[in-house]
Amino acid sequence: MRSALAAGNHTMLPETRTDRRPNLVLIGFMGTGKSTIGRLCARRLDMEFRDSDALIEQRTNLSIPQIFAEKGEPWFRRIERIIIQELAAHRGLVIATGGGVPLDSDNVELLRASGLLVLLTAHPDVILERVGPVHRRPLLAQGADPKERIRALLEEREAAYRKAAHCVVDTSHSSPEESAEKVVLLYKVTQGG
Ligand code: S3P
After folding, report:
1. Burial level of 156, CB count in 10 A (0-12/13-18/19+)?
2. Number of other CB atoms surrounding residue 144 within 10 Å
3. Environment class of residue 16 by beta-carbon count within 10 Å: exposed (0-12), middle (13-18) or buried (19+)?
4. Tens-of-pLDDT digits for all 193 residues of the chain?
5. Is 8 exposed, middle or buried (0-12, 13-18, 19+ CB in 10 A)?
6. What percent of the residues of the chain are helix, what percent strand, and what percent coil, each to the nearest 5?
7. Cα–Cα distance between 20 and 138 in angstroms, integer?
8. Is the CB of 65 under 6 A from ligand 1?
């Protein structure tokens, strides 16, 4: 299942790693803390951390805004699916996914077969505060009012996010450390640990 994009030297994991624990997959909207909390969870669980957006940028040698501007969203989504297929083939990973990943049913099926999907949520005001300059977030830069755009996208995606997730952690009023603790606990409980 390797695509032309997947050059041979892009190994996802060191060959020697034999962690067979289910993946811990963080899904949810931009600004809910997936990458920050994911890194903290990986450290606490002694698991490898992967970020699907970072892998897309690495694989294409383009930034996410560049991809949207130069190649378009459908191209981005194709690469995203390839990266998700590859990640879901591994175990023992904490994976922070891009906000659009759960909108694709194949992505969801593969990820759910690979481990636990935790949906991170946050209030739209908190999201707006956290996301920073919208030019880094091409989907929020569309339209005049980023807050309205956040609300509209959240409403559009809510059902898909909830359907994909095994459990939900709201990060609006917690520090990344506090949220990571909750996520780690959920992971341990579902693993019977
Ligand atoms: C997207 C979210 C972004 C990135 C891209 C599209 C989305 O990731 O994948 O800009 O569709 O919500 P983050 O959720 O990590 O910001």
Report:
1. exposed
2. 6
3. exposed
4. 444 455 444 545 554 568 899 999 999 999 999 999 999 999 999 999 999 999 999 999 999 999 999 999 999 999 999 999 999 999 999 999 999 999 999 999 999 999 999 999 999 999 999 998 877 888 998 888 999 999 999 999 999 999 999 999 999 999 999 999 999 999 999 987 6
5. exposed
6. 55, 15, 30
7. 36
8. no
Nearest protein Cα to ligand 1, atom 9: 98
How do beta strands 23-28 and 93-96 pair?
A: parallel
Say if residues 155 and 124 touch (Cβ distance below 8 Å).
no
Note the helical H segments in the chain.
34-45, 52-60, 64-66, 73-88, 105-114, 124-131, 138-141, 146-164, 176-190
The atom number, within ligand 1, closest to the CA of 68 reads 10
Q: Which residue has the tokens 């995203």?
A: 80
7-10: long-range contacts at Cβ-Cβ below 8 A with a sequence spacing of 24 or more? 7/59, 10/58, 10/59
| Closest Cα to atom 2 of ligand 1 | 99
Q: Which residue carries 């957006």 as its tokens?
A: 53
